[in-house]
Amino acid sequence: MDRRTAIKVIGGSVLGIAGLGALAKREDIIRWLDADKAAMESGETKAGKVSTRFYKPLERELSVLGFGCMRFPMKNGEIDYELTDKMVDYAYRHGVNYYDTAYFYHGGKSEETIGRILKKYPRESFCLTDKMPTYAIDDPKDVPGIFEEQLRRCGVEYFDNYLLHSLSSMEKFERIYLAGGGLDYLREQKENGRIRSLGFSFHGDVPFFNYLMDNFTWDCTMIQLNYLDWNEENEAPEGSRQAGSLYRKAEEKNVPCFIMEPVKGGNLAALPKNTMDILKKREPKKSAASWALRYVGTKPLVVTMLSGMSTIEQVVDNVNTTTDFKPLDDADMRVLNLSMGKNDNTGMIPCTYCRYCDPCPYGVDIAGVIKTYNLWAERLGLTEGGHGGIKEKKEFLTRYKNAVEKSARADHCTRCLKCMPRCPQSINIPTEMRKVDEFVQKLEKDIHKKAEGASV
Question: What is the model's pTM?
Fold first, then answer.
């Protein structure tokens, strides 16, 4: 693809998803990204910028879309640095100025990767967020060393936002951050200018969140919020369905919210056909993910929605959705509520594939098992209410066996329960592993019976 052709595909602005679908090869995607950059720099194309919202603790505008650094594209088992660099560059020149990493993302490689990429831009032009890895700390004395290591990895002198990562346990919060002095240390770093804004990300229950909000002063919080996890005031929190309770408490305390999992780990980007038919009648050209982002962005306390983007299609679609951002209106909400009514019984497991449950002591690839089941069982019509035939059953088994190593499949779950406390979605993982294993066994029996009948 030459530059002139690429500019035609770009269409004078940003690339549409339909046009991007033709770019199957990595090399073509990179050439397109280079052409898009050259066209914008030369003035041959002009593109809108992602909308922003004012964040008072930093006294600056932040993009409503943030680039989550948890799901970078991979190549040969490592982060694909060249492609990641060009994807981040695309987001940056289209107005994304918020980047969120963490100590353990990509096995500790995320911080170094995003730090190297952002070096090319003026430091004041972007906001970099990092987090203290609560789950990994046993001795409070480790907090200063980890913080210094994070600054070195990212190659910066300060973090714009810094969060206590994944607070879920009152005991650990009190032991590490209060009695152990971790919170006092981080507050000192804020006083010294090495942290500009201090908050926490949350994966606990509502009473713990209320305790944190009522007893401490925070610049911000990061919560999981999407339309499937929202509960109304008259709905008691259940599992991950507690976003409404968390948001309303933050609203009461006027604490700005940064949002993780607005598309629920990609689950709200690939909806059943009957659900999409309803949404397409309202917005024929809009993606499922755009509805999820617009829902979250409708909440006035939300500053930035994070998306862990691993493909350029995701980057382009999210940039399009948040450029001249339009929240959902009342008519949109009625349509979305109608679509959810048809989407209640898909049989999907509400996993976001965050891999906080890793490693399984017995080698089960929990996220891989669930992702394959969620993606292909419904798509092939094999979930409850589906009518998949032998062809579809064989295809599912092929997909499952190709995606998940034999020793890492659901049948290797021993119900040791080690994964349960780590799951942010409060999923009963052993039960779901049994569900998938029984599903696989049933498909194999159905195929075997069909084969026996054919041989008679």
Answer: 0.81
Number of helices and strands (H, E) in the chain?
17, 12
CA dist 35 and 32 (Å) reads 5
Is the pLDDT at 196 greater than 50, yes or no?
yes
What single string gives the DSSP state of each residue in 11-70? TTSS--HHHHTT--SHHHHHHHHHHHHHHHHHTS-----B-EEEEGGGTEEEESEEEETT
Pick the closest to residue 135 from 189, 177, 101 (CA basis).
177
- C-beta of residue 84 within 8 angstroms of C-beta of residue 91: no
- The enclosing H or E element of 97 equals none
CB of 91 within 8 A of CB of 66? no
pLDDT, tens digit (0-9, with 9 covering 90-100), for 391-416: 889 989 999 999 899 999 999 999 99
Structure tokens, 340: 């959810």
Spacing of C-alpha 334 from chain mean position: 25
Contact 272, 346 (CB under 8 A): yes
Q: How far apart are CA 262 and CA 297, in angstroms?
A: 9
pLDDT tens profile 213-248: 999 999 999 999 999 999 999 999 988 899 999 999
% of the chain surpassing 70 pLDDT: 92
Determine the distance from the C-alpha atom of residue 143 to the mean position of all C-alpha atoms in its chain, rounded to a whole number. 26
How far is it, in rounded angstroms, from Cα 39 to Cα 41? Answer: 6
Q: At CA 420, angle to CA 202 and CA 365, rounded to 5?
A: 105
How far does CA 411 lie from the centroid of its chain? 28
Q: What angle do CA 245, 246, 250 make, to 5 degrees?
A: 120
Q: Is the pLDDT of residue 25 over 90?
A: no
- Average pLDDT, stretch 301-322? 95
How confident is the model over 165-192, as a mean pLDDT?
Answer: 97
Among candidates 372, 388, 369, 376, which has minimal Cα distance to 429?
369
pLDDT at residue 189 is higher than 60: yes
> Residue with structure tokens 């008519």?
331
| Euclidean distance between the first and the last CA atom of the chain, given in angstroms as a whole number | 56
Q: How far apart are the C-alpha atoms of 61 and 441, rounded to whole Å?
A: 53
Going along 358-412, which residue ranges are E strands?
none
For the cut 70, the answer to whether the pLDDT of residue 2 exceeds it is no
Q: What span, in angstroms and rounded, lies between the C-alpha atoms of 220 and 55?
A: 10
